[in-house]
Specification:
homodimer, alpha/beta, six-stranded parallel sheet, 16% strand, elongated, DNA-binding
Chain lengths: 328, 328
DNA sequence: TTGAAAGCGCTAACAG
DNA sequence: CTGTTAGCGCTTTCAA
């Protein structure tokens, strides 16, 4: 197989310990033997076995990321940001995916832990006390992004509720007399961790109270296109759709376009997330930028603090950005 | 720390060997001791140390993926497909990113190899004999997707040239009298592995010869928007743009829209890749679907054959799909 | 049916 | 300045 310290040792006529010293620059060693060892090592293209090192030291310089789907823009952007940050600390990232399969999600986390990753960045689908317990048993530094699991696990994100309130404010002030909140079915709340959407809805419901002359509707169904169409057809006043996710907004715009209805002229619409697909869609969708890159960076730096044994806040909030596009 | 076979052994009053037998179902062991061991293990929530197992066996059930950016739709879709396939074999995927940094790309591959991943799926930026040599030294089963590195490393992809020819055919037959091929600068060819774009260009150049009455232009510059605009302004005949990448096409459409020029009415346009962003863009872009999911699946299955020691073809071609949208 | 011993490759404590 | 020894946790002969 490949070259080991043993080989180098025997070639150089020294012990493995000495070879090790040459690499680690630790302990006393004569410059001469050191150079000789390094030279031989380079010639043989020696590479330390990371498994063996990890086994010995318990340090792997890897951390684990478990998300459900990289086609999701949020995760794609997050992964990139995390990678870049990790690299700065000379850490590597082990990314695995589970397609919203909760059982698999746990298995992956467990497996990575068995692999001795030194920490986790998660955006879990699972939630609740049992999952929280599970994570505690895993007993590795862990930071949660985007979906709250429990009070005791460090979380990084934006203030979703505030953001939703800001959105409602902006829409209302543009004179819309009916605002429709579109989000995934809340019935899935027990199945999936849709903390973000819940928060956004709460923000919507709270803020809309401040505009008593604005009619409010909530559409929480996967069949939202039909419902939204019905609402439009019956609308007697200027109507805007506030979607808990840009994708919903894009789908609606596309759907309405079939009937010749256009955003801003015929209805107002706003998304949430600022996914990068928006760069290519005209008109520019108004939305909330959830600053995933910043959130991710922050998450990584918190993770490193945890790895170093420091105490960290269990909730870190990053500022979102309201984007006033061309659809309101 | 955590529970080891040693702990279980001492609790059960047996040797570690016996404990191991209980788990591996290998060698003779009485049903009674086995059950006892498994019970104790479960109670203590024993988890085998994957590093130790890997060190001993050389098998990690991981393979490595190295790409430059998951925000790139092609890679995002590829990763998902690869993950799903890997899971079927109970393998795990270790994904790392390098942002088109060739030095880093090599480091990552090396590092993963040092970590004893059992194989690689790569879509490298590096190419040429020295990179090819490098990969050979790594000496792990490797499959290349999307960018050819060398004749001797198994490759999976579509026939880019044929696809480009089909595209030209389709455009020409719709009556366009000028076709402009838009691609990244070829000058970067030595810096980046843009095999796909080269192939597409070749296909364009070859096929256009069959239409002597059609004028052809190649725009290979990052400043393509300006050039394309100039061409449009000077155009005296029906002009279409064939872009070596959907992104270019989307940018062009967006750019022209500012001036009130619309695809199909004022010019024809076709992309390449069929990225999923297209789902939300109107009009529907004509393009070539590079069937990344199929390519990825195939790549994984070939990788597993290599891991199993089977011989595999060093070039595997998957059928692309021509998508006739609304922009021609 | 079970156990002792050696070893994967690297490292660290302790001698010399 | 250098070597011996033991051990990380698991596995695999070989012997009992």
């Amino acid at each position: 197989m490949s070259v080991t310290t043993k080989d180098i040792a025997s070639i150089c006529g020294v012990s493995r310990t000495t070879v090790n010293r040459a690499f680690t620059n630790t302990g006393r060693i004569s410059e001469e033997t050191k150079q000789k060892i390094l030279k031989v090592a380079a010639e043989l293209e020696y590479r330390p076995d990371l498994l063996a090192m990890g086994l010995k030291s318990g340090k792997t310089r890897f951390f684990g990321i478990v998300v459900f789907d990289v086609r999701n823009r949020y995760f794609a952007q997050m992964l990139n940001a995390v990678e870049v940050e990790a690299r700065k600390h000379d850490y590597f990232v082990n990314i695995t995916l589970h397609e919203k399969n909760k059982k698999l999600e746990k298995e992956l986390i467990q497996r990575l832990a068995d692999y001795r990753v030194e920490g986790f960045i998660l955006s879990p689908v699972s939630k609740g006390p049992s999952f929280s317990e599970f994570l505690k048993k895993i007993n590795k530094p862990t930071v949660i992004i985007g979906n709250r699991v429990g009070k005791d696990i460090p979380f990084v994100g934006i203030n979703e509720k505030e953001a939703a309130k800001d959105a409602v404010k902006m829409i209302a002030e543009k004179g819309y007399k009916q605002i429709v909140f579109v989000c995934p079915p809340l019935a899935d709340a027990e199945q999936e961790n849709i903390y973000s959407h819940e928060q956004r809805e709460q923000g919507f419901l709270e803020e809309i109270k401040n505009y008593p002359d604005v009619n409010s509707v909530v559409v929480a169904s996967w069949d939202y296109l039909k419902e939204v169409e019905k609402i439009m057809n019956q609308a007697t006043s200027k109507t805007a759709f506030f979607c808990s996710g840009d994708i919903f907004a894009l789908e609606i715009m596309k759907y309405f376009k079939q009937f010749g209805k256009r955003a801003k002229q015929d209805y107002g619409i706003m998304g949430f997330d600022n996914i990068d697909t928006l760069d290519y869609v005209i008109p520019r969708l108004s939305t909330i930028d959830n600053v995933v890159e910043k959130v991710s960076e922050k998450a990584v730096s918190i993770l490193f603090e945890m790895i170093e044994g420091k105490k960290v806040p269990n909730k870190t909030i990053v500022d979102y950005i309201v984007i006033n596009g061309e659809t309101l």
